[in-house]
Design a protein that fits this description.
The structure holds two protein chains of two kinds. By secondary structure, chain A is of the alpha/beta class. Chain A contains twelve helices and 14 strands. In chain A, helix 7 packs across helix 11. The two termini of chain A are about 40 Å apart. By secondary structure, chain B is of the alpha+beta class. Chain B has five helices and three strands; from the N terminus they run H-E-E-E-H-H-H-H. Chain B is elongated and about 55 Å long. The chains are: A alpha/beta, B alpha+beta.
């Protein structure tokens, strides 16, 4: 029985062309790009060619692309790098309440270092309010960091408008585009983006490679150098990311980007069709279920549904038994035992946040996969609902003191 | 993540469902935290004659509530009170450390049911005396 993978937001399998490319470079391009000799310079050439390919996907200049190990590292470099470099200029950062932990926890860390962070609230669809953003800016603000599209609920933020506001106030605008690169068109010029994080393993590339787009390669009018490195060492990536470059991985990233360029339009049309089919079928055929996130300002491949009266980990465990991979925002499935902060931010009660199911499709998802999932889900929901003491309209009693002695 | 025993109890839960004519119910947990368990018991001659559960919670929560009904059925009330979370986790061939609190929940649920039953008995006895 074929396993149906519907967790593309967590990671993606590598495209066979990417694997072939990386394998070739593992064998042939083993040089260190910093070496003067031919072996090293061959590697340097592949590195620069990869940089050029990646830059073209987002309309950036080649020397504005910096390779890191991951989306998380890129987020850390962007936010800490700007904060520490500019702390004399200002100490206020504006972000949202629905960022990925790589941004959220980095901001929380900076608060402990004396920075002030405003976490903008979002509406019930996960969208920030542009007016509220502008009103939050002070003369101490240096950076705005807003996620391009949320990884849990798929909502796409008004990035171009945020960029305009940042430009108007001469602030640095960073966006975490880890879930977006390769799925929807991104133009850093048109959108006034200064810093953009992305990760190869979300677009059929290898794990362990990420990128940070840095406008003006880290220099800007009136600010001069506006970002400092996290990693100090041999001065690689124009001094902003020391470490011998992972050339085969980076070449794989470039190949993945090339494939996205080629496939994006057709793929997103297919995925939107699947997405809307899943949402329609489930909301029409199962009771007490609702969509999390915006209906249309949404990633093509993201479905996130809340099922009342049952818990998310038991849903995904039941799906796994049927050979289907999905994910949930339930506390029970997280390391921290906290429910998803994103679902809480869009106004969900914690008991409802525990009942969420996230389905994310991708390049290799077929119509048969979708039909199989739609066939297997309703009996799972029915069984778990029979098992649950929570019922529509029924008042349940729970011991309010239990929360205190219940070990979390 | 989960042992085969846990998966077995998850896929084929024992004694699942509401007991409409239960002698007592133990309610533990909190949906805000992501788990809620009801343990229903029917008592005959100071023994647990029948027991069932309803659970809102993860795979471990469902498996531990199923397992505790299996462990407790037929036991005297005193014996059932002694069932610990380690008994439950052990019978399931172990739980991931982060899930041990679910077995806590199940043993607390059973104890609560028994305490509720005993409190009811005491009340009825007092009424009978009057």
């Amino acid at each position: 029985m074929k396993y149906v993978y519907l967790d593309y937001a967590a990671t993606t399998p590598m495209d066979p062309e990417v694997i072939k490319e990386i394998e070739k470079h593992y064998r042939e391009t083993y040089g260190n790009p910093s070496s003067f000799h031919t072996i090293g310079q061959n590697a340097a050439q592949i590195l620069e060619k990869s940089r050029e390919t990646v830059a073209s996907l987002i309309n950036a200049k080649t020397d504005e692309i910096f390779f890191t190990s991951s989306g998380t590292e890129s987020d850390n470099l962007a936010i800490k790098g700007v904060a520490f470099k500019n702390k004399e200029r200002g100490n206020h950062i504006i972000t949202s309440s629905i960022e990925h932990h790589a941004v959220q926890h980095t901001c929380q860390y900076l608060e402990k270092q004396g920075f002030k962070v405003s976490y903008l609230p979002v509406d019930e669809y996960g969208l920030i309010d542009l007016k509220e953003l502008e009103e939050t800016i002070t003369n101490k603000t240096i950076l705005i960091s807003i996620i391009f599209a949320n990884n849990e609920i798929g909502t796409i933020e008004p990035i171009k408008e945020i960029g305009e506001i940042a430009k108007k106030h001469d602030l640095i605008f960073h966006t975490d585009a880890v879930q977006t690169l390769g799925k929807v068109p991104i133009d850093v010029e048109e959108m006034n983006i200064d810093l953009l994080s992305a990760s190869a393993h979300k677009l059929y590339g290898p794990k362990g490679v990420g990128l940070l787009y840095i406008r003006g390669h880290g220099v800007r009018k009136r600010w001069g150098k506006y970002i400092e490195p996290l990693l100090h060492g041999g001065g690689h990536e124009r001094g902003l990311r020391s470490s011998t470059e992972n050339v085969p991985g980076i070449a794989g990233f470039a190949k993945a980007v090339e494939l996205c360029k080629r496939n994006m339009k057709e793929e997103s049309e297919k995925l939107i069709r699947f997405r809307d089919k899943i949402i329609k079928e489930i909301t029409e055929n199962i009771e007490d279920v609702y969509l999390n996130g915006h209906y249309t300002k949404r990633l093509p491949n993201n479905v996130n549904l809340g099922f009342r009266y049952i818990e998310g980990e038991s849903i995904i465990l039941s799906l796994d038994v049927e050979g289907i991979a999905a994910s949930t925002g339930s506390a029970c499935s997280s390391k921290s035992l906290e429910p998803s902060h994103v679902l809480l931010a869009i106004g969900q009660k914690p008991e409802d946040a525990h009942g969420s199911l996230r389905i994310t499709t991708g390049r290799y998802t077929t119509e048969a996969d979708i039909d199989y999932f739609l066939e297997k889900l309703p009996p799972i929901i029915e069984k778990l609902r029979k098992m649950s003491p929570l019922k529509k309209g029924k008042k349940y009693m729970f011991d309010p003191t239990y929360e205190t002695n219940h070990h979390h | 993540m989960y042992s085969e025993k846990v998966m077995d109890h998850f896929r084929n839960p024992r004694n699942m469902g509401e007991m409409k004519d239960a002698d007592a119910v133990g309610e533990v947990g909190n949906p805000v935290c992501g788990d809620l368990m009801y343990i229903y018991i029917k008592i005959k001659d100071d023994r647990i004659d029948d027991i069932s559960f309803q659970t809102f919670g993860c795979g471990a929560a469902i498996a531990t509530s199923s397992m505790i009904t299996e462990l407790a059925k037929g036991k005297t009330l005193d014996e059932a009170m002694k069932i610990t979370r380690d008994d439950i986790a052990g019978s399931l061939d172990g739980l991931p450390p982060i899930k041990m609190h679910c077995s806590n929940l199940a043993s607390d649920g059973l104890r609560k049911a028994i305490e509720n039953y005993r409190a009811k008995q005491k009340k009825e006895l007092n009424i009978a005396k009057e």
